[in-house]
Amino acid sequence: MTRNKDLSPCTALVTGASSGIGLEFSRQLAAWGAALVMVSIDQDDLDREAARIANTYRVPVDTCCMDLARTETADELYRYCQKKGLQIDILINNAGIFAFKEVIRTDPNKIETMLQLHMGTVTRLSRLFATDMCERHCGYLLNMSSLSCWTPYPGIALYTATKAYIRVFTRALACELHDYGVHATVVCPGGVATGLYGLPPRLLKLGVQLGILMTPERLVRKSLNALFRGKKQLIPGFFNRLLIPLAAVMPTRIRLIVKHRMLDE
Q: Catalytic: which of 78, 140, 153, 163?
């Protein structure tokens, strides 16, 4: 499947679809003709953006508002699709949260939320929908990790650890699914100009201009091209790929300086 492939026979399920990267996945998939199942915890944003996509691209759009950080959510979402007669051909596990805080100062409920959302739900959704794809011997699964998954960063220990799980899990899953004709891709982006980090719009724009941040449009375009070409892993951007070995040898004292500047100010 190539970038210009007609996706009108396909239905794509996108989590975290009401804003940011998930919304951009929904837009670009719809632009290629795919029907959508948009999932988010934000009902108002979800309904508004789904209506815009349906009107703009003239594709069927289903919405499902639910909290993906609950243990039972993956089964509920799978049953929702079965009940509606929706065959999922493309699964985009994008929903995630970010927090910059020491583990000992992080609320236990926030810890459980991140662990469940990034690991539990991603694993369960991947298994449920990949099982159906394997029976049909076709399908595409994309999980969003992070560039930070390669090395521990103080202040985002939980985030980097859970994103590392997603990368390793998806790489192994891709090998398991290969013989069934199902493709799995993990994407490990650096900074992206979305509201995830809580930065004001002017700083997001500056980050893009300086090449520090990537726009959601560019990231999603690269991600979908990698997915449909059957790549198992994508690290978008030459500078980001260069950072991986550099971050691995970063002295602890440098990590602590960055941590103190981010947390103590």
A: 163
